Amino acid sequence: MQTAVVILNWNGKDFLRDFLPGVIAHTQDEARIIVADNASTDDSVAYLKEFFPQVEVILNDKNYGFAGGYNEVLKRVDAEYYVLLNSDIEVTEGWLTPMVKMMNGDKSIGAVQPKLKSFYEKDKFEYAGAAGGFIDIFAYPFCRGRLFQHIEHDNGQYDQSTEIFWATGACMMVRADLWHKLGGLDVDFFAHMEEIDFCWRLKLEGYKVMYSHQSHVYHVGGGTLPKKSWKKTYLNMRNNNIMLWKNLPIGLLIPVSVMRLFLDGIAALKFLIDGGWHDLWAVFRAHSSFYRTLGRTVAKRRGRKITLVPDIYLGNIVWEHFIRGKRQFNQLSEAKFRK
């Protein structure tokens, strides 16, 4: 059994051209390298076959999105560990070894992520995962190294491997047996926050999610959807609410959901004031879609033991950041993190 590094591609020929050579150079002796194509309409597949014949290519018959795309491909990949790797990631020498060692050394670890830094500003963390992800009690995600749009410089402040709440889908190693046991990513998410939901389910099963500071990669970010996109607003807000209703203990579900409705309303008002009409419409669409599929979401709770898992921030990160002015992860109260 071995490690399989799987890059999901959709019309990403330029990213493959720029970053696949580095993946091959720094990975081929340690893992299988697979490009999974999500029915690209550019010439990605032909380009791969011509210039990277040593790389395995698996074809999906249509664009299943991030979640469905990986689910379809990994049904056909036999390995001990999977590494979900974005096509816009620049890996570094020795990037894979620390994560493999961490997984080999502790069978209770279900997933690991490396230090994720910006490709364009290499002294700064990158939005999509930084030094490991967390959520607050209302399911708002944040990272060590990133609170909302405030991104920290890497000054070694997170140079310690530690347990986190979620690992970034941009570069996440998971145990293959647990991936299949949990059914992979939730296809109802299509894209965005599916890795947070997956890690939440891992923790509900009693497994740990870890950050390895000894491994680092650089991420371009926004390769599929730009950061300021109404589609991203829609997916994030819809999926955020789905995630709550899937994984939060029943006793907290109603009060937390009421507060989330209020907070989402404030976000909609801010979009209105700022003239963000598309984002305002995205909020309404997100809630409409969420309520239409609520029955299916609630059904996913059946047969599962749902408790309040470790590493949730028992506070409101929106309040902490925008009202109390906290800009860095280490300014948050350690006492508020569920142990």
What does this structure look like?
By secondary structure, this protein is an alpha/beta fold. The chain folds into two domains: 3-219, Spore Coat Polysaccharide Biosynthesis Protein SpsA, Chain A, CATH 3.90.550.10; 230-307. Helices cover 38% and strands 19% of the residues. The protein has eleven helices and 13 strands. Strand 7 (133-135) and strand 8 form a beta hairpin.
Salient structural properties:
single chain; 339 residues; alpha/beta; Spore Coat Polysaccharide Biosynthesis Protein SpsA, Chain A; 2 domains; nine-stranded mixed beta sheet; 11 helices
Put the structure in a nutshell:
The protein has 339 residues and is an alpha/beta fold. The chain has two domains: 217 residues, Spore Coat Polysaccharide Biosynthesis Protein SpsA, Chain A; 78 residues.
Largest sheet: 9 strands, mixed
The SS-based structural class is alpha/beta
CATH superfamily of the largest domain: Spore Coat Polysaccharide Biosynthesis Protein SpsA, Chain A
- Summed over residues and divided by their number, the pLDDT gives a mean of 95
Portion of residues within helices: 25-40%
Oligomer: single chain
Could you please say which CATH topology of the largest domain applies here? Spore Coat Polysaccharide Biosynthesis Protein SpsA, Chain A
For the record, what CATH class of the largest domain applies?
Alpha Beta
SSE ordering: EHEHEHEEHEEEEEEEHHEHHHHH
Total discrete domains: 2
As a whole number of angstroms, the C-alpha radius of gyration is 19 Å
Poorly predicted runs of 5 or more residues: none
The rough form would be described as globular
Task: Classify the beta-strand content into a percent band.
Answer: 15-25%
